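Re: folding output
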Amino acid sequence: MKNLKNSVQLEGFAGSDPKIFNLEGGKRMAKLSMAVNDSYRDSEGKSKTHWFDLIFWNNKMTLVEDTVKKGTRFSIKGSLTTQTYTDKDKKNITKTAIVVNHLEIIRGEEDQD
């Protein structure tokens, strides 16, 4: 178990256009939700959609800004991270997101899901 890594690989669709953030020190970040459909379909032929929050930094941010729009099919590789904050009702909220280190746009393929 020493060689276990924090690694995630997904293929899906952009749920929206990326949200771009310009931060202090010239850093840039983008956030985007990705929809991933199960390959399993129920008796009515419907599959379940899972939503994942993605985070892109610096050069990956520029790539996603230039190439990904709502509905774009793409694959990612990245690692899980958690973010904790206090909301307006003073409740602690923890969210899991994927920090993307590889992005590939899937072109010319029909949706087979």
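--- second protein (sequence, then structure) ---
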Amino acid sequence: MRSIKYGVMTSVFLACMSLFGGGFGLFEHSTKALGMGGAFVARADNATAIYFNPAGITQLEGLSWALTTSPIQPNVSLTDMGGNQYKVDSSLTVIPSLYLTYQLSDQFWLGVGSYVPFGLATKMEENWAGRYNSHNAEASSLNLNLNLAYKVNDHLSLAFGLDAQMFDVTLEQKILPSAIVYSQREGIMAGLLAQGMDAATAEYVFNTQFLAPSAELKDINQEISGDKTCLGYNLALHYKPNDFVSMGVSYRSSVDYDIDGKAKYRDVTQGFIFPFESIFYDAPGLAKIELPSFLYFGFAYFPNEKLCFEIDAWQSGWSTYDVLDVFIENGLQSVQTIKNWDDVWMFRAGCEYVINDSWYATLGYLYDESPIPDEHMDFTLPASDRDVYSFGIGFTKGNYCFEASYGYLKLQDRHVEARPSEFILEMDIEGNVNLYSIGVTYKK
């Protein structure tokens, strides 16, 4: 059954992993930061610092909070070598986040954040050409992050935090009955030969009574869903030696996941000469994966009171994702697939210009590498290196700041070579994503 399992299961729980940096890691954790290309690790001077660099919250007096909502609209298409174009569903997805900080004393601050670290919605028509690899992949997540920050002195601050991360994933693909039958050709032929048939007769019976009729059957639909809550931790440092420079380092730990899931099937032909129903039946499942650690560096320069420039470098340690172990308690059983993903970097740059006491403007750029090697690329998440160009504005009234930002994400064109054993067709991927964000922050 291994040849069946490989084609069917390669992408089963892939979505929950390819959502982080280079896959579909989300940038909309802060309206102001989006306008600065996501470069905010060294600045970290409002409540959204809980995500970027929690040590930065020691810059905030008393009570501070931030609320953002960020609609995302993708426009991604895949084109086969015949010129046929297939579009990913472009429905709008709204990403919320909420942050709260409180100064406990002259040296300690408490910070709480609720945000969506990753998300995915790659939905195609059920009859599209790549449906045997994937026609629907959806994932949602929520991260609750509690941090304690310590102000060592007027220049240096440290922070430690705990993460409770919850996510839910659903993946759907079609299964080609004739491919299942053909994958079992050796066993079926052995059975026919054992009945006394010669090789030519057995081949004829296989082709006419097994393979040809199975080609007329309806595709089997497989839906895999799973959810899990796991714990992680984070560390952060913020250093501001003078009024002109600030620096930050932030680390989020790797996490081992045992994902509890289930498999559901429909359109499984009953009573056919080949026993599909003994393989594809509803059953629980489990996937074992290790998600990588993330390390962020930031440097900010303030030439005067009106200008700020920041550059960040973010590393995603995807080399920890070398294998994927999946088990489903039906006829598929278990399989281990080799992944060998790469460590990747994301580079961010942004600037802020304070127009007057009420208004500011931001500008930013972000480059994000894809961790997925060509030999393991699939249609669950059509990913490539990404460029993001962004800008934003903010209006301050008293202790409140009302913000709006826009980012244009351009997927770099990527060519996918055919891998017939995994139902991967030769395709060209291109597209863009519109990133919107509005938010309000409060600080004394």
